[in-house]
Write a structure and sequence with these properties.
It is built from five helices and four strands, in the order H-H-H-E-E-E-E-H-H. By secondary structure, it is of the alpha+beta class. The protein has a domain of 78 residues. Strands 1-2 form a two-stranded antiparallel ribbon. Helix 2 packs across helix 3. It is globular and about 50 Å long. Bound molecules: iron/sulfur cluster (SF4) (2 copies). One iron/sulfur cluster binds next to helix 1 and helix 5.
Length: 136
């Protein structure tokens, strides 16, 4: 008999304002993801692609919306509940994130709430990727 135990998860998405849906400007979707969206909304593949995604160079990403809390976020985030409105049809990349037992953004949230001694404080996190130049 198998005795595999699930690793303990150290974050709780229901207690997070959905940092990951907001601070990443690119949520990349595959053709399979678009197919899932099309089925969910009973649209053609082309219609789902046009309505919900846009081209970004060589890739296709989810469209975004204004977010009073974090500036911008995924178009599928419910701005009131901070939950995903297409949970069962969400892209693969959303299913896999964060891909480990800790979420760095959740850790920051908990860290700042403890440091500020305020359970309601919301640290505003911005993410920028810089590519340092290497000496040749
Ligand atoms: S940032 Fe982390 S804790 Fe928050 S919703 Fe995303 S995965 Fe969950
Ligand atoms: S599809 Fe859902 S889980 Fe993925 S970024 Fe958008 S709101 Fe978040």
């Amino acid at each position: 008999m198998s005795t595999t135990t699930k690793p303990r998860i150290h974050y709780d998405c229901t207690k997070c304002p959905a940092f990951c849906c907001s601070i990443y400007e690119r949520v990349v979707v595959t053709q399979r993801d678009v197919k899932r969206l099309a089925r969910h909304f009973e649209l053609t593949h082309e219609e789902a692609e046009r309505r919900f995604t846009k081209r970004n160079g060589d890739e296709r990403i989810l469209r975004r919306q204004k977010d009073p809390l974090l500036g911008q976020t995924c178009r599928f985030l419910d701005l009131e509940t901070r939950g995903c409105t297409i949970y069962h049809a969400r892209p693969q990349i959303c299913r896999e994130y964060p891909g480990r037992t800790r979420c760095g953004y959740y850790d920051i949230l908990q860290f700042e709430r403890a440091t500020q001694e305020d359970d309601s404080v919301l640290p505003l996190i911005q993410l920028r990727f810089l590519k340092p130049k290497r000496d040749s």
